[in-house]
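Proteins fold reproducibly. Take a tokenised chain:

. . .
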Amino acid sequence: MGALTWPFLLAFASPTASLALRDMVVLPHPALTHAALGFGDLPARSAPQDGVLAVVGRVMPATWFVAVLMVASASAAAWVAARVGSRPWTKAAAMTVAVWNPFVVERMLQGQWSLALTAWLLPAVALCRGPAQLLAIWGASLTPTGGLFALLTSLTAPRRLPLLFSLACCSPWLFPALLSGVSGGAATAASAAAFAPRAETFAGTLGSLVGLGGIWNGAAVPASRSAGFALAGIALFAVLCLASRHVPRRLLILAGVGFAVPLVSWLLPDLMAWFVSTIPGAGLLRDAQKFVALALPAFVVAAARLDRVNLRLPAVVMLLALMQVPDAPRAIAVLTPVEVAVPAVDHHGRDVLFDARPYLLTRPDGIPMVDPATKAMNVVESGELVVDGVTVDPPSPRWRAAQDIFGTAPAPDPAISASADDLAVQLFYSDPQVALIVRPDGTVEDTGYPARPLPRSGLALLILWMLLPVLAFAPAFSRLVSQRRSSSARRPPQA
């Protein structure tokens, strides 16, 4: 566990540093913004995660909290895997498969720490019962993808409570999506191709997927995967299949769903492009490779049951799992906390437009990262994403209107402007709600627009999510109270 989480632990030695890498920017003390509550300019992809970090950041550095979460989730994966195994070697094999796999390493290198956390918690969601299961569902639901994975895993449970609890955990991002007409969940057809699974060296696309690898961004892959070590994942999958008849059918079905989504994206790209661009909310499917995380519970159980096939196989599995990404501890060194510069703007909670400032910035070592200003203040966010010269995410309607009114940068591509969002753009022309415009030279213009109050519905959903663990432990607490009352009633009166 420590070999894959050590960069996060360095946050305790650097309380002023941030976790900043590609999709990840965790400031020590982020702001509670409209976007953090799921009601910003972009889809609620980081709710309730950013809201939780903002609340925690008022008490202690949010980077410390993330470090605790990562260590706790990895420990949970190891603990659950050890419980499934019946012998020392099967326990070790299951623990290795659960914690050390290409999926969590590649997703951490992409900056998607909460998705790696979800993968580590899924075995607990699938194999635990009672408060432990509900707590794992709650932790996985930090982001929409994690909430969706926990929900799908809960569907395999024999009881309804985990499913209902999963739905409640999804409320911080589900309700904002519904209130916005679910348009925030849509995606462009080009994004399906940009985020399709990627073939790794010697393994091909299919081999990469069955080994739980194949992330779309080749820059977020350890060097060993490009040297042919992905082949170990194929061998690992073949060995685990030997114990498939000892794996519960519900977990095999869940794994089948996890592999089906990326396979459709790879084999039927036109179908996936149509699906994500047509079906409301289907934008969650465009990064199809991430669904292979659903196979992890089945992998863990298969590793734990290999002694029923051959007593030597658990040791083989342990070796193959480590060989998939032997350089993982070194590769994740880029996750080490760094000092990032947040623009000094006296905003007082008002909305800020950064003129001609890109959404993605670059660290001193050349690695991209999300603009940290978006986590420190209410920024009018563009959200435009260009992959290999193709615009897969167009700019948000408010940013396009505000840039046209206040900005000095060239207007967006007319082909992008002539989209279904034109009506929304026109609405923001009448009231762009921009208070401060920060020019490229650092000068600030004040329009006098006041600070917008935080959405009450967003605050209510965040509070509800944070109180859900109380509901998870309520039955156990009720039983404890009942047992004490029963014992008191049976106790003979004292003379």
Remarks:
- The CA atoms of residues 156 and 210 lie 21 Å apart.
- Residues 414-420 have pLDDT under 50 and may be disordered.
- The chain is about 50% helix and 5% strand.
- The radius of gyration is 24 Å.
